[in-house]
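User: I've been trying to design a sequence by hand for this structure and keep getting stuck. Would you show me what you'd pick, starting by listing the structure so we're on the same page?

Assistant: Good idea, let's start from the same input. This is the structure you sent:
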């Protein structure tokens, strides 16, 4: 699995998150030819009655109407994939964001089309999951000239259309009692050891700017005399990512894949001098699902905790060689800011020298890892 790609350097409407916004840069760059011509949808109340053409670049948001659907209900939307100009083959697809996480996932596709206009109108059956979140969400309809199925709901291309519609889910899951969406309303851990079986699938959004996946915050009150904490997501149902921060949001440590539990995460952190810390649970990429989190007093001794905190990287900035000195981490990866791997190797006997003379001037990401943790540092090449 890919390692972390981010800039985390050490030192109203349900489902609306600061970082989990709908992709609004999708769609066509031209207003001619292929286009959704019309769409209708009648709900428990309200309806959608849309007429397309002339074409619109990017995402067109049809916000003047809202249709109300019941969780567990079945409905039919009729739509015409067509054209505002010439007739060219392409593909169409529609999604409804039932879990209100600002992502149009493959499991939320309600229908597909492929052909060359003029074709008969399509009828997509909408089976609203009983687990859908109560509140306002979106339906997205995409037509991509020369595209092929399945479509990317965030894709960009030359000709076609992307149209968003308001859908309000009734009688679904009420998220008002779901704590943990941010640092203001975390899931509180008062005593250790602590274990919980929980899920990121419902009622949570992306507040931690690592991945677009939904995340859940745990606030741990550090017991007196405890110098380290161990947190584990081993046994979870999806590829997890785990972040630890202090109460001010400064990253203490991160972990993607732990050797002892596959694609799940675990880490141990020093909490000396801290009265509380946050553990943030999320998925790699956009993954979400059921997880088990365990938090307990750590087993690191004073010397090992000192090793975790004693990392020397110099000179930084550098025009040539870069020296890494650490007893806590045994391997490194060097990436550019697009996540491309440039170098990787073991750290031998606590020290390694990297030759960066062939790299272009700029900023790079150095990831130091051991079996249970990783730390990210910013490197500047002159």
């Amino acid at each position: 699995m890919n390692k972390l790609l981010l800039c985390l350097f050490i030192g109203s409407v349900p489902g609306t998150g600061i970082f989990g916004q709908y992709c609004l840069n999708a769609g066509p760059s031209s207003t001619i030819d292929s286009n959704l011509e019309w769409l209708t949808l009648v709900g428990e109340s309200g309806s959608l009655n849309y007429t397309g053409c002339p074409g619109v670049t990017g995402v067109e948001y049809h916000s003047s109407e809202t249709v109300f659907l019941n969780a567990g209900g079945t409905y039919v939307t009729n739509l015409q994939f067509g054209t505002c100009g010439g007739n060219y083959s392409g593909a169409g697809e529609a999604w409804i964001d039932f879990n209100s996480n600002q992502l149009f996932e493959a499991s939320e596709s309600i229908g597909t089309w492929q052909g060359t206009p003029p074709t008969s109108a399509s009828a997509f059956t909408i089976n609203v999951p009983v687990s859908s979140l109560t509140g306002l969400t979106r339906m997205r309809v995409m037509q991509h000239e020369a595209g092929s199925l399945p479509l990317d709901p965030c894709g960009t291309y030359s000709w076609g259309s992307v149209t968003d519609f308001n859908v309000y889910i009734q009688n679904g899951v009420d998220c008002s009692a779901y704590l943990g969406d941010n640092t203001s309303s975390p899931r509180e851990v008062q005593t250790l050891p602590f274990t919980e079986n929980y899920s990121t699938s419902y009622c949570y959004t992306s507040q931690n700017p690592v991945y677009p996946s939904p995340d859940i915050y745990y606030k741990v009150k550090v017991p007196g005399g405890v110098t380290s904490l161990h947190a584990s997501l081993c046994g979870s149902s999806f590829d997890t990512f785990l972040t630890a921060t202090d109460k001010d949001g400064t990253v203490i440590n991160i972990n993607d894949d732990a050797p002892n539990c596959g694609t799940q995460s675990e880490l141990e952190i020093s909490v000396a001098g801290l009265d509380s810390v946050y553990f943030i649970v999320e998925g790699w990429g956009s993954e979400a699902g059921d997880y088990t989190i365990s938090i307990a007093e750590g087993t690191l001794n004073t010397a090992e905790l000192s090793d975790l905190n004693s990392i020397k990287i110099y000179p930084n900035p550098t025009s040539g060689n870069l020296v890494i000195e650490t007893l806590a981490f045994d391997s490194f990866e060097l990436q550019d800011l697009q996540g491309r791997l440039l170098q990787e190797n073991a750290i031998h006997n606590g020290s390694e020298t990297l030759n960066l003379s062939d790299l272009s001037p700029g900023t790079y990401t150095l990831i130091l890892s051991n079996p249970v943790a990783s730390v990210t540092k910013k490197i500047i090449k002159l």
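That's my pick for every position. To get oriented when you compare it with your attempt: The CA atoms of residues 156 and 231 lie 40 Å apart. The first strand starts at residue 27 and ends at 28.
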